[in-house]
Each structure stands twice: as C-alpha cells, then as structure tokens.
Design goal:
Layout: H1 13-18, E1 26-29, E2 33-37, E3 47-51, H2 63-82, E4 89-94, E5 109-114, H3 131-148
Antiparallel strand pairs: 1-2, 2-3, 3-5, 4-5
C-alpha cells in the first residue's frame, strides 16, 4: 500500500491489486476501476470489477464510482458473450455484507459467465409475501429515500 493509504485499506488485497502491488490477471483498468479474473471462479471467465478507492460496500461508494463500476461490469459481460469462451448466460452479482456472502471487504462486482451444467445454482425457499407486508416494506424504503434528500 502507499504511504497515503487509509487504515481501512491497509492489508486489503483488492487495494494491492488495484495499485499493482499484488498479482492478478487484469482484463481491464482505468483511473477508477480494475477488472481482473476471480482467483476462485464459479466458472471459467468469472471476473471482478473493483474500484481503486477502498470502499467496503455500496454505502461507501460515491454515485459516480458506483455507476462506473456497473458500467464496466456491463462492458465485461458483453466482452464475455463475444469472447471465444462461448458462455450461455451471465450473472452479475454483488455481495454487500457478511450475511450477503461478502468475503473480501472491498466492494467488488462479480461478472460470472454461465454454462449449462456448470454446477452453480442460486436456490431459495421463498414463499409469496402478502401484499400488506410488501406495501409496508415499500413504505419503509420510501421513507428512507425521503430522509436521504
């Protein structure tokens, strides 16, 4: 890390990759983000889009950086589709927080090419939620939006 690194970024592997101080198979980089291959891929071609600035989660990113991460993620998905890897689908995944399966606490967007029979599944046992509860949830979110303005 550079001498100007914040304490939160000290020892952060993604900060080290972004600063070219740790090894990674980089696919794309600009002044805001770096995209590189996931070391533990779900499927061949699985990559991560990471902001250069240290941010733990979505809440810690400014709007411009967040929008750029998602835009580059879109570009990476398009590149995967057009590549010789011949993926049949794409998952774009964000794990924000430990309970959401985040394991590296530097914001990162997964772009995961999918192949028939690749063995990875997103499964849940959700049941339909009552409209009154959905309406209550919607109001709580609306209230949070209004409070942020």
């Amino acid at each position: 890390m550079t001498q100007n690194a914040t304490p939160a970024a000290q020892g952060c592997i993604f900060c080290a990759i972004a600063a070219r101080q740790a090894e990674a198979s980089v696919v794309y980089e600009d002044e805001t983000v770096v995209a590189f291959m996931d070391l533990n891929p779900v499927a061949p071609g699985h990559l991560l889009v990471v902001p250069r600035v240290h941010a733990v989660g979505l809440e810690d990113l400014d709007r411009a950086t967040s929008a750029h991460v998602w835009s580059v993620g879109h570009d990476m998905a398009r590149a995967l589709r057009r590549s010789t890897m011949r993926c049949e689908g794409i998952n774009v995944l964000l794990c924000d927080g430990e309970v959401a399966f985040q394991t590296v606490f530097h914001f990162h967007l997964h772009v995961i090419p999918r192949y028939a029979g690749d063995g990875w599944a997103l499964m849940h046992d959700a049941t339909e939620r009552k409209r009154s509860l959905l309406d209550s949830d919607a109001q709580a979110i609306k209230d949070a939006i209004a409070a942020a303005d």
